[in-house]
TrEMBL record, chain A:
The Pyrroline-5-carboxylate reductase catalytic N-terminal domain, residue ranges: 3-96
InterPro entries named in the record: 6-PGluconate_DH-like_C_sf (IPR008927), NAD(P)-bd_dom_sf (IPR036291), P5C_Rdtase_cat_N (IPR028939), P5CR_dimer (IPR029036), Pyrroline-COOH_reductase (IPR000304)
Gene: LOC100369672
Keyword rRNA processing: no
Class of enzymatic activity (EC top level): oxidoreductase
Protein name: pyrroline-5-carboxylate reductase
UniProtKB/TrEMBL annotation, chain B:
Upper lineage: Eukaryota, Metazoa, Hemichordata, Enteropneusta, Harrimaniidae
InterPro entries: 6-PGluconate_DH-like_C_sf, NAD(P)-bd_dom_sf, P5C_Rdtase_cat_N, P5CR_dimer, Pyrroline-COOH_reductase
Every Pyrroline-5-carboxylate reductase catalytic N-terminal domain range: 3-96
Name of the protein this chain belongs to: pyrroline-5-carboxylate reductase
EC nos: 1.5.1.2
Amino acid sequence: MSVAIVGAGKFGQAIARGFVRAGLVAADRIIASTPCSEDLAKAAKIGVRTTFDNLEAVKPSNVVFLAVKPDVMRTVLYEIAPIISERHIVVSVAAGVKISYVEDKLPVDTRVIRVMSNTPCMVGEGATVFARGTAAKDSDSVLVQQFFSTLGFCVESEESSLDAVTGVSGSGPAYAFCAIDAMADGGVKMGLPRDLALKLAAQTMLGAAKMTLEPGSHPMILKDNVGSPGGTTMAGVHKLEELGFRNCLISAVESTTVKSVELSQQMLDEDKNYDEDVKTAVLKI
Amino acid sequence: MPIAIVGAGKIGQAIARGFVRAGLVSADRIISSSPSRECLTEMGRLGVRTTYDNMDAVKPSNIVFLAVKPNIMPAVLDEIAPVINERHLVVSLAAGITIDFLEQKLPANARVIRVMCNTPCIVGEGATVFSRGSAAKQTDSIIVQKFFTSLGFCDEGDESILDAVTGVSGSGPAYAFCAIDAIADGGVKMGLPRHLSIKLAAQTLLGAAKMVLETESHPMVLKDDVCSPLGTTISAIHKLEQQGFRNCLIDAVEVAALKSKEISVKNQQKTQLKQEYEEDIKSAAFIQ
């Protein structure tokens, strides 16, 4: 099995690193392509093969990850379309790019899967949800499930859920980074050295999350179990409620989801304009 | 070497479960005491020996973990003090109970260690900081370090930082649970089924925390890395800033740390008042 990772930016590198670390694919069976030499150098450090040429990566591979930014997706799809065959599984990991958008630009019956994953894949603790395109087979689902299960949690779902997934787990790591930084700031304010404060904040978040993942756990019941009567924890929790902490996060998830929907629509609209422009240009000729 | 766990509540069960799970001590070498039948039943399920009598647990043991609520500590200390000798290492897990307080209540030269750990010890991902009392030896530190490292991260520190540690990692899991619940609410609002939403929220926090710990990158650098120009994530960051998200947590840590300090001061005052009362009684008796 040969894997192409088109787009060797942050996420492309994250999944490359994840796959190699998990022993899923040997580093030399992965080819990463990008026009950016800095990114290519970073990818090379992971041990994967690299190239500036997308076609060179795609031709020999059977699984092609498209990890490019939404705004260059169209160009990349048109570029690789001529060499995409029934041998390929095209896995798009780009936010806001609909399956129909991808299928539209590739040969009919191309097997496409759309994935919303996240950067903790690179430490083997990713969260991934994927949806099947019209020609994707059961075995394609199974393969993608296998890939992303080695990088963390993975489940298949409807495409319609992927914007919300973006809001929760796609962008979610950023909310967590801010939270860890803020807790560490609090610790430093109250007298801890920075590195200890940061370590404690991150470890606390990790531990609490792990507890929540145990079967049968509910976060709010777990919260109840932390505090003692008259203790420090309920004082802290009250402060969070006073300041609308939970609201911050609900709003953040909502705004990300809406943005993701907007992005997908934008891309479809641009398609329409693009087609019109092409038509007009052709007529002019 | 038997171990006593006085108090079989959430933290007592957490450390028992953790120590046994980590293979540090077998369940039948642990004796846990509590007045609560429910709690003892839970402990019993782990294979730990149980008793209603604190003395039964403390007398035969070398290491005594005090995992009772801060408001019961004074009574428990008074109760066990008569049987504490140089063989014992007393490890207190209670928030806001100072080393001074512990040492005043126990015999002179009792070896005491004060610990601030947290509930994720149950799943082997705890965060613990401990401080030595005046008679505790180097070897005592090493033992406690070993025990709590088997449950997650553990470091020794000066007692003066333990209130702050309480604010960050002692109470911190509750803030994380609230965060997970809220993110999950957001997901459900936007169309995800509840169980998937909770799963994704918890997994995301776990993964992000692991990235901070493993890459040793600054969390804000990691945040930068996940924010593409014009993307969904930076939009969310702005929303969080607008709503003072980070402020919520800084405030929560501060409030919890101050509360921890308040509890220690109150306990100290109570003990002082009690001492003064006892002296008054003595002098009154003398005058008569």
